[in-house]
Amino acid sequence: MPENTISVIDARRAGxxxxxxGIAAVVGILALAAILLFANLPDADAFNARVEQIFVANDNLxxxxxxxxxxxxxxxxxxFSDVLQSYRQIIFVLLIFAAAxxxxxxxxxxxxxxxxxxxxxxxxxxxxxxxxxxSRQERLVLLNNMEFKLTEAAIExxxxxxxxxxxxxxxxxxxxESVIQGRRPEDCEEAAGATRIKRLRDSLGNQIVSELLxxxxxxxxxxxxxxxxxxxxx
Length: 234
What we know:
- The protein is an alpha+beta fold.
- About 70% of the residues lie in helices and about 10% in strands.
- The strands form two sheets. A four-stranded mixed sheet has the order 3-2-1-6, covered by helices on one side.
- Helix 4 (about 150-165) crosses helix 6 and helix 5 (about 175-180) packs across helix 6.
């Protein structure tokens, strides 16, 4: 199995473990916060219990106004109990909502990290091409399961790069232009070859595929970043 495939699998496993531990940590922290919060909230019946103590301590209150006052206190205690109970429900819903948001954010973060690692592996190892078929007559390129219809100049550029890759050569822009034009490299400009590479990449369309397929090695030149055994010219 290729090294970059192993690295991707390892990255997935690591990302899965981080996600599981992260979710467990988020749920644990929020559960602890909920327990501490509800434990420190006043009892819903605390006000009613206090009013009851007032009734017991002042059983000698017999006038109509005094009794009315005690009834108002009792009703206030009931209202306070109902309000506090609704607050508990609201706090519980908010904690559930916060947990869901944190878990979703953690999952998204882990996904982004794993994708960055995978892209980094692809950039280091190159694109995995199992089959590259180049047809000059039809100006057609089959890259794995993708089909590209190229211009004559682009197919010629790709064909020259493929031949160089099979010979394990790296071509500068001037060398690429000299092979296509049939002239000496000294008589060709580096910029002309670079322009051909740019047009080839534009013809391939997919920026990720084209950038990883046609690699630019600093101070050396251009090369197809694929295994030479998968290239076929027809």
